[in-house]
Amino acid sequence: MVEYRPEVLDRVFAAVADPTRRAILAALAEKPATIGAIAEPFPVSLNAISKHVMVLERAGLIRREIVGREHRCRFKPAPLREASAWLEHYRRFWDVRLDALERHILAKKQRKNDG
Amino acid sequence: MVEYRPEVLDRVFAAVADPTRRAILAALAEKPATIGAIAEPFPVSLNAISKHVMVLERAGLIRREIVGREHRCRFKPAPLREASAWLEHYRRFWDVRLDALERHILAKKQRKNDG
Fold it and tell me: What is the spatial distance between Cα B30 and Cα B53, in angstroms, rounded to a whole number?
């Protein structure tokens, strides 16, 4: 069993629980961008986008590079690995149960056919 | 590309962004339980646990069955599939980039050896 760090899971899941923040990540996954360029397609203030970027930064999903007067943001997917592993563990857990149920039903059917 | 439903991702990610809610899901993944039994190991009020259960219920991760005076809760992992697919898409996206980078470096090395 993987050792999950609660604070990493808390921050990553909270960060991706917002549609604007997911859209920002999707854009940055294509290419790095300045805060201004990130904000452009969104009908909200630059300040609101700046706050979303800070949440993503604290979750470790964005790295900000300051070049002169520009803040350039880059997508850092590493923390997604732990969050993804947690979700997969519980998703798969269920698949295993369904498999067991299927085997149980098939075995029952077999016994019925044999009997 | 999978079609992600923003409201499902919002609710599931927000639901699992809390350590108590993740612990509740982990317990219910083992076996269904009443709200009272769920609350027992936690040093918080039954009311607080009840609120956490409601958040999980709204995210579709728990189904509540009312049998007489008992509220029995059951883990429903189906919504995790969509959330997991979203995370995996961005996690893998990065692996693809790393592979491309590795190929680029190897090709460069090869050209150097050939030259």
Answer: 16
Query: Could you tell me how many CB contacts below 8 A there are between chain A and chain B?
Result: 78
- CA A73-A76-A77 angle, to 5 degrees, is 145
One pLDDT digit (tens) per residue for chain A, 115 residues: 567 899 999 999 999 999 999 999 999 999 999 999 999 999 999 999 999 999 999 999 999 999 888 889 999 999 999 999 999 998 877 677 667 777 778 888 888 888 6
Cβ of A77 within 8 Å of Cβ of B90? The answer is yes
pTM of the model: 0.84
* Contacts for B48 with CB less than 8 Å, ≥ 6 apart: B20, B42
Q: Is B19 helix (H, G, I), strand (E, B) or coil?
A: helix
Closest by Cβ to B90, choosing from A17, A19, A25: A25
Beta carbons of A103 and A53 less than 8 angstroms apart: no
Determine the angle formed by the axes of helices B46-58 and B6-16, rounding to 10 degrees: 150
Which residue on chain A is closest to B94 by alpha carbon?
Answer: A77
Distance CA A62, CA B77 (A): 29
- List the strands of the sheet with B62-67, edge to edge: B33-34, B70-75, B62-67
A17:B19 CB<8 A: no
Question: B46 to chain A, minimum CA–CA distance in Å?
Answer: 22
What does the alpha-carbon distance between residue A56 and residue A95 come to, in Å, rounded to a whole number?
A: 32
**Predicted ipTM of the assembly:** 0.83
